[in-house]
Amino acid sequence: MELRQLHYFVKVCELRSMGRAALELDLATSALSQQISRLESELSTRLLLRSSTGVTPTDAGLAFLQQAHLTLRHADEAVRAAQQARLSGHVSIGLPPTTSSVLGVPFMQAMAQRYPDVRLHLVEALSGHLAAMLNARQLDLAVVFQADTARRWSVLPLLDEKLFVIGRADLPGVPAGRQVRLAQLGALPLILPSASHGLRSTLEAAFARVRVTPRVVAEIDGLALLMDAVRAGHGATIQPGAATARMAAQPLVQVRIADAQVGRRNLLASLSDDELSPAALAARVVLAEVARQLVREQHWAGATLHEN
Length: 308
Hints:
Blueprint: H1 3-15, H2 18-25, H3 29-43, E1 48-51, E2 54-57, H4 59-84, E3 89-95, H5 97-114, E4 118-124, H6 127-135, E5 141-144, E6 153-167, E7 179-180, E8 189-192, H7 198-209, E9 215-219, H8 223-231, E10 237-240, E11 253-257, E12 263-271, H9 278-296, E13 303-305
């Protein structure tokens, strides 16, 4: 098996056409088809289904495609590292919106200082979406809130976050004081993420334990829009303290939820160590160090370091 065969296979899968792939690769269609057939013969399995309308990967082809992407990327990084004689490469990292608002820029700065030749690709998305991207090998590592133990992930608990009621001081029902219990929030108009969001599931279970039905007046899955609606006074929300990290000039009331076990754990999940490039392994260490430093220096509101 040769790297060029992997490259040919990936291109065919991307374009779903042998002819278009051959044109882009500057090959004859027959030569490209022959290379794919040799690859299938070597693997003793069918990778592509050919039809008059194009080609589609089989189940075996999809599994092979994930690993082919990974192999080609690592090969490119190995070449660059050898050429530059120092750590280099490309690392893809996923961060949930609240986490990225605190961790994103400090992490980028730390990586630029320690590993200036490592190119970062940062993805901001909901935790569930990041987990799916990690499973598909589209990310090297990600901060998530739930770990899928069925996958071959390396998981490191980073920190625990308290949750806060966040809203305008003039919104009717916004609690006063430093902390409040969920049982006192039944009448408060809330703007929350939808049921597909892990935080919503956590809150629904917590409200159920105290036999209170929250008054949800709107569901918004984007953090920026959700906080815009809170600032406009359409309702309050329940979020970790990091949700207000980008709003220093627009203070809102923040009252900590006092109920035990109402919080969220940040987990640093990555592909298994044997799948990570040297650059990705280094980035994982830096990300964990920066997160812990932010908590120790009290730059992460409501966060405490996880006790192993």
